[in-house]
């Protein structure tokens, strides 16, 4: 059932609704492009490992794994923000009944930063690849290069953790300052 509203407001909300969905699509597309580039990098480095050495391979893949995790977190942040806006716009247009299309979990309140969307699967995938290449290759790294790799791992982990906290705080600020509605 559609609710009555001012035509200018309706036009504005419909344009914003479309823009928010475009943002969600763009975030998904960019993340898959990052993953495709990561896969190509893995394959390319695998072919050149004799020239760059095990440490070179591990070093570059570690940097790009952390970059992939950060990209996934950023995409999740945009996704959650835009889904919150989309959800609020839909609430303006629809009277919610039990048979509505919008998932019930989206109608119970604001969307949490930690959720069950595909971004977290990608974070887990980048993390699993990072761990796997360490398990397989770390024992073959020279003693001279091992401290460099450990330093990169520690700083990379700290950076990703710090960035995660920053994104979580930004999300919390957005949630607390966004007026939005919840459905009773």
Main attributes of the structure:
single chain, 184 residues, mainly alpha, 77% helix
What do these coordinates show?
This protein has 184 residues and is mainly alpha-helical. It has one domain (7-177). It is 77% helix and 0% strand. The protein contains five helices and no strands. The chain has helices at 7-47, 49-93, 104-107, 118-137, 146-177. Helix 1 runs antiparallel to helix 2 (49-93). The radius of gyration is 21 Å and the shape is elongated. The chain starts with 6 loop residues before the first helix and ends in a 7-residue tail after the last helix. The mean pLDDT is 83.
Give the SSE map.
Layout: H1 7-47, H2 49-93, H3 104-107, H4 118-137, H5 146-177
Count of domain modules: 1
Kindly state the mean pLDDT as a whole number? 83
Structural class: mainly alpha
The helix-strand sequence is HHHHH
Number of helices: 5
Percent of residues in helices comes to over 70%
Largest sheet: none
Shape field: elongated
The amount of beta strand, in percent, is under 5%
Low-confidence region ranges: none
Using the CA coordinates, give the radius of gyration.
21 Å
Beta strand count: 0
**Whole-Å distance between the termini?**
16 Å
Kindly summarize this structure in a few lines.
The chain has about 180 residues and is mostly helical.
């Amino acid at each position: 059932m559609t609710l009555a509203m001012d035509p200018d407001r309706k036009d504005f909300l419909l344009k914003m609704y479309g823009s928010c969905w475009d943002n969600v699509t763009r975030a998904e597309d960019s993340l898959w492009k990052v993953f495709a580039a990561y896969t190509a990098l893995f394959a390319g480095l695998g072919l050149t490992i004799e020239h760059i050495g095990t440490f070179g391979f591990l070093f570059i893949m570690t940097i790009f794994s952390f970059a992939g995790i950060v990209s996934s977190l950023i995409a999740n942040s945009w996704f959650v923000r835009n889904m919150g806006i989309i959800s609020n716009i839909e609430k303006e247009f629809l009277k919610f009944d039990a048979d509505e299309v919008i998932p019930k979990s989206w109608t119970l309140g604001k969307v949490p930063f930690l959720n069950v969307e595909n971004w977290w699967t990608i974070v887990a995938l980048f993390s699993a690849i990072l761990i796997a290449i360490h398990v397989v290759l770390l024992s073959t790294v020279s003693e001279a290069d091992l401290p460099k790799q450990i330093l990169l791992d520690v700083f990379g982990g700290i950076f990703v953790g710090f960035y995660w906290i920053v994104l979580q705080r930004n999300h919390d600020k957005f949630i607390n300052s966004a007026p939005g509605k919840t459905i009773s």
